[in-house]
Structures are given as structure tokens and as C-alpha cells.
């Protein structure tokens, strides 16, 4: 049996004894970490389909080409997303560095030495002995840890799961970014529609102001009617600067999300456009779909798996480590004999290293790893619980916001009818201007509320897509 064969026999025998004495390191649990089962289904509603999960690029269903282009620019330029990509590369480098422990470490050393001794260092001179000596050597050595008990394997697995978690974090940033751009765009269009409503009312209020002035000039109305009409007219005009400021600020917010300066967006986004279509039947799937659809849940699960592997590595530290060490090289005093067979040197050194006592360091390291594992499991369950809450809230908000839009549309119709009737009666002198004044204020308030409710409905729809994990998820 050769030297290498005896080494493997030695290692196998020792490993068998240790396994019988200590037992193998337990494999980590790859199952679910939920403390309680998810609900089987959401509360039934005709607006939602519970069979299929939401598909990616949901914003295209809103039918707004401008929004599509904004999200494309944001995906290419957003700094938060680029930073998430940098974190993926960092985690990948750490993982590859940990995988290097699978391979032996190889070193090469070479040197040459020439030395002359002093003739005056000894009182007796020895004939035939040279005072000059020289020595040359070259050596190739290797050190390889044999991972019998999974210490390296578990550490690599831990870093691999963290790397996968950073990929899920990237997907989570992508989902959030698409939803944030869409929400900011919806708010911009809401402000613009309210601005248009104010302009329309300014025009109608100016016409009514002209009517009061004509009636006052003909003695059919008092100065009070003119003053009240002017107060409503100028009050509506005074709301325009605030709306303009809100529009500009919203364009600035969108520019930050897109990673560009506002000057490049203002010429395009300043042009008013309708609020994107918000009436949709959404495929939300069933609650269990969140486990594979939402990136934050998948990232939390990867983190649990990483800490589970770290705990396994900490257990492995209690067991011995096996090393295969060896070297081969040449050494000679005379360079002419350097590559001579007699100048060959080698060493094979199978080594068992078992740290039997190190205070409480390994025990506390294992306890800390277990505590981190328990903490990550609780965070995972909290993430799942929060996800279910967010979906439920978004579904409820979207449903009731749609009902509010339907009711406000009827309110606006009745308000406009009231204004028309009160103005007609006022022209004929059958009612006071106060009724017209109240109707003017009410219609403006109703229409603003309707526009705001339409924007909120779209925001709830976007929030629903986001909460179920819909977005531009990378593979």
C-alpha cells in the first residue's frame, strides 16, 4: 500500500470512529419556516381573480405609453436599483471566495544564498576548508483541508443563500421602483386634472360674475352679489399657484426615481394628460402564492437558510479537521547538481487537528448562530404576515375607492344640476345669489373630490400590484 493509500485508510478509520462517537452533523431543514398556515383564499370579490398570480409588467395594462417609457428609464438609471446590483456582485464575490476553501492552497518558494566566513574569526586555520558556501533551493508545497464534517460546505452554502437573498432584494427594489414611478405618475396626473378643473371653474365663475355685474348695472342685483361672485372667482384663481407648485414638485420626484434631472422631463410631463385607466379585474392569486411571488418573502427565506447553514458550520467546528500537506522540490549547494535526482526533496504529512478546548468560544459561537437563526425565522414569519396584511389592505382600499368614485360621479351630476337650476332661477329673479354661490362652491369641491378619488383608486390598484409581488422581476 502506497503512502497516499495509507493516508486515506488512516483518515477513513479516524472518521468512522468519530462518526460513531459524535454522530454526523445534522442536515439543515429545507422545509417551510411558517409558524402557522396561510389563509386558503382571500375574501371573495368580483373585482379579483384568485386562480393566477399577477403577471409582470402590469403597468402596460393601464394603457399609458408615457408611463411605460418612464418605467423603462427608471429601470436603466435609478440609483437604488444600481446599488442593489452592486450588492449582488459583492455577495457573489464573497461566495466565490468562500468556495475557494474547497481547493488546496499551493505555494512556491525559491532562493539562493552565498556566504563567506571570516578568516579572522578563528585562531587556527584549517587547510582545504573553503570559507565560501552557497545554497540554492526551490520548493512547491500544498495544504488541503479535507471537508469531512461539512464545515466548509456549510459556510459556502451560507454565503450562497445570502447571494441569492441579494438577488431577491434586487427584485424587491425593482418591484418597488415600478410601483413608485407609477404612483408618482398617478399623483402628477391627479394634480393636473385638478388644475384643469380649477381652470374650467374659473371660466364659468367669470361668466357668472359678468351676469351679476350686468344685473347690478341694471338695478336687478345688489353690490353684495357682485362682491360674493368676485370672492369665489378670486378664491379659485388663488388655488392655481399651489397646484402648479405641486405639479412641479411631483415632476422633481419622478426625476429622482428616474435618475435624471427635472429639466429633461418638464417639457414632456408638463403637458396635462388624463389619469390612466384604473378599472381592472386583478389576478391576485391565492395567499400561498405570496411565498413565491413576493421578493421580500423569498429573500427572508433565503436569509433563514443562510443562518441555518451558519449554525451547521458552527456545529462542525466542534469536530476535528483533516489536512493533507505535502511539498516537493530541489536543494543543492552546487547549481550544476540542482536538478540531480539526489537533490530531490519531498514531504507528505497527513494531519489531524482537533481543538479540544478553547474556553467557551465555540459554544457561544454556536449559541449566537442559533439565536440568529431563530431571529431570522421570526422575521420571515413577520414578513409573510405583513405581506398578507398589505394585500388585504390594498384589496379593501381599491374596492371601497371604486365605490366612492361611483358615488362622487352622481354627486357631481347632481351638483351641476343644482348649479344650473339655481343660476336659472337667479336670472329670473326667483332666488337669491346665495344659492348660486353655494352651488358654485359645492360643484368645485365635488369635482376636486372626484378627481382625488380617481387618483386614489389608481394608487390603490398600483399598491395591490405591488403587494402581490408584481413587477419587472429579473430571472
Automatic annotation (TrEMBL):
UniProt membrane topology term: Lipid-anchor
Superkingdom as given in the UniProt entry: Bacteria
Subcellular compartments: Cell membrane
A Gene Ontology cellular-component term: plasma membrane
Record Pfam families: OEP
Keywords: Lipoprotein, Membrane, Palmitate, Signal, Transmembrane, Transmembrane beta strand
Residues in the signal sequence: 1-27
A single MF term (Gene Ontology): efflux transmembrane transporter activity
Family: Belongs to the outer membrane factor (OMF) (TC 1.B.17) family.
Name the record gives this protein: Transporter
Biological classification of the source: Bacteria, Pseudomonadati, Bacteroidota, Bacteroidia, Bacteroidales
Amino acid at each position: 500500500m502506497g503512502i497516499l493509500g495509507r493516508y486515506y485508510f488512516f483518515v477513513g478509520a479516524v472518521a468512522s470512529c468519530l462518526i460513531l462517537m459524535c454522530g454526523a452533523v445534522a442536515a439543515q431543514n429545507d422545509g417551510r419556516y411558517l409558524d402557522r398556515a396561510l389563509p386558503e383564499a382571500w375574501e371573495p370579490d368580483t373585482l379579483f381573480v384568485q386562480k393566477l398570480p399577477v403577471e409582470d409588467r402590469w403597468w402596460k395594462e393601464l394603457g399609458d405609453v408615457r408611463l411605460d417609457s418612464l418605467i423603462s428609464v427608471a429601470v436603466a438609471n435609478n440609483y437604488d436599483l444600481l446599488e442593489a446590483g452592486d450588492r449582488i456582485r459583492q455577495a457573489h464575490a464573497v461566495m466565490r471566495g468562500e468556495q475557494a476553501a474547497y481547493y488546496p492552497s499551493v505555494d512556491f518558494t525559491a532562493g539562493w544564498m552565498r556566504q563567506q566566513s571570516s578568516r579572522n574569526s578563528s585562531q587556527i586555520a584549517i587547510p582545504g576548508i573553503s570559507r565560501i558556501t552557497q545554497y540554492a533551493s526551490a520548493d512547491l508545497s500544498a495544504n488541503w483541508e479535507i471537508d469531512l464534517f461539512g464545515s466548509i460546505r456549510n459556510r459556502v452554502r451560507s454565503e450562497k443563500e445570502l447571494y441569492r437573498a441579494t438577488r431577491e432584494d434586487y427584485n424587491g427594489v425593482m418591484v418597488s421602483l415600478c410601483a413608485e414611478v407609477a404612483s408618482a405618475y398617478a399623483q402628477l396626473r391627479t394634480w393636473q386634472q385638478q388644475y384643469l378643473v380649477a381652470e374650467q371653474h374659473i371660466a364659468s365663475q367669470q361668466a357668472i360674475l359678468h351676469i351679476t355685474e350686468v344685473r347690478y348695472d341694471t338695478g336687478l342685483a345688489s353690490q353684495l352679489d357682485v362682491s360674493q361672485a368676485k370672492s369665489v372667482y378670486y378664491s379659485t384663481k388663488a388655488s392655481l399657484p399651489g397646484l402648479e407648485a405641486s405639479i412641479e414638485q411631483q415632476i422633481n420626484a419622478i426625476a429622482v426615481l428616474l435618475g435624471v434631472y427635472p429639466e429633461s422631463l418638464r417639457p414632456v410631463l408638463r403637458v396635462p394628460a388624463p389619469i390612466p385607466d384604473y378599472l381592472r379585474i386583478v389576478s391576485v392569486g391565492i395567499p400561498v402564492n405570496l411565498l413565491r411571488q413576493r421578493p421580500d418573502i423569498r429573500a427572508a427565506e433565503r436569509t433563514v437558510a443562510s443562518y441555518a447553514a451558519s449554525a451547521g458550520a458552527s456545529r462542525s467546528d466542534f469536530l476535528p479537521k483533516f489536512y493533507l500537506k505535502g511539498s516537493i522540490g530541489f536543494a543543492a549547494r552546487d547549481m550544476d547538481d540542482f536538478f540531480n535526482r539526489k537533490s530531490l526533496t519531498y514531504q507528505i504529512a497527513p494531519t489531524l487537528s482537533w481543538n479540544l478546548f478553547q474556553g467557551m468560544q465555540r459554544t457561544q459561537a454556536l449559541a449566537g448562530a442559533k439565536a440568529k437563526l431563530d431571529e431570522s425565522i421570526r422575521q420571515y414569519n413577520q414578513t409573510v404576515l405583513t405581506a398578507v396584511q398589505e394585500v388585504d389592505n390594498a384589496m379593501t382600499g381599491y374596492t371601497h375607492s371604486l365605490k366612492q368614485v361611483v358615488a362622487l360621479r352622481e354627486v357631481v351630476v347632481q351638483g351641476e344640476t343644482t348649479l344650473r337650476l339655481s343660476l336659472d332661477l337667479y336670472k329670473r329673479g326667483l332666488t337669491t345669489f346665495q344659492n348660486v354661490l353655494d352651488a358654485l362652491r359645492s360643484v368645485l369641491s365635488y369635482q376636486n373630490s372626484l378627481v382625488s378619488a380617481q387618483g386614489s383608486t389608481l394608487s390603490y390598484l398600483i399598491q395591490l400590484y405591488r403587494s402581490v409581488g408584481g413587477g419587472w422581476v429579473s430571472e
